[in-house]
Amino acid sequence: MMQAADPADRRHGGDALVENFAGLGAAIVFDAMHAMGLPNGVMDARVRHLSGAPVAGLARTVDRSTAAANARQPSFGADLAMGTQQVIDSARPGEILVITLGGDASGATWGANMATRAAALGVQAVITDGAVRDIAEMPAIGISVYAQGTSPRVNFQHIVTRSIDEPVMCGGVLVAPGDIVIADRDGVIVVPAAQAQEVAQRAQALQETEQRMQAAIRDGAGLVDAIRLYKIR
């Protein structure tokens, strides 16, 4: 079984990177990545806000997907049968769980039991391109949820866990453990850890410019003139 990274290694320097994104929304972070010529990092719009506050944190990853015909969990590693639960149990405060199902929303991969344990350990959010359930309980539990939708059905039979704490594709975006995930009502964006500091600096500069531009508009400047003056993006 792929073992979860050591918490000290996983978080080395990570908290400081996350702090750089304080007050930055997904949209302005996208603008920064676009200006830098980086892949846009925006998850498919089907992965949307369902509950909770905006979040920014380090990614933890789980790859779950539909098994091939007649295949069962032992074919992919019997010790991964509770891989999601293992990642939750080893989670650190502030982390964000990213669970990919290859877009399969036929049944829930997340519910109140998982959320209760994750919230107790300080996990901020779960993000999945699949479905969740018990959504009405999430605000009281205190965890944010971004998913394709909801379903009362659970995926017991045809879903397998392929890996934990390995790079995954979720919502059309590559997510590696330790990448920075920013999620709000606009959507979910992933910033590779190696570029995170530069992206945050660019996003902060863009945000300051936008604030000045909007102040000028409120003072009566025309939109065309304001865009020409501030030349944002």
Topology:
Layout: H1 7-11, H2 14-19, H3 26-35, E1 48-51, E2 55-66, H4 83-89, E3 96-100, H5 112-120, E4 125-128, E5 131-132, H6 138-141, E6 144-147, E7 149-150, E8 159-164, E9 168-170, E10 173-175, E11 180-184, E12 187-191, H7 196-218, H8 223-230
Parallel strand pairs: 2-3, 3-4, 4-6, 5-7
Antiparallel strand pairs: 1-6, 2-8, 2-11, 9-10, 11-12
Helix pairs in contact: 3-7, 7-8
Would you give an account of this structure?
- Helix 3 (26-35) packs across helix 7 and helix 7 runs antiparallel to helix 8 (223-230).
- Helices cover 31% and strands 24% of the residues.
- Strand 9 (168-170) and strand 10 form a beta hairpin.
- The chain has one domain (7-207): Glucose Oxidase, domain 1 (3-Layer(bba) Sandwich), CATH 3.50.30.
- The chain contains 8 helices and 12 strands.
- With 233 residues, it is α/β, with parallel strands linked by helices.
- The protein starts with 6 loop residues before the first helix and ends with a helix.
- The protein has helices at residues 7-11, 14-19, 26-35, 83-89, 112-120, 138-141, 196-218, 223-230, and strands spanning 48-51, 55-66, 96-100, 125-128, 131-132, 144-147, 149-150, 159-164, 168-170, 173-175, 180-184, 187-191.
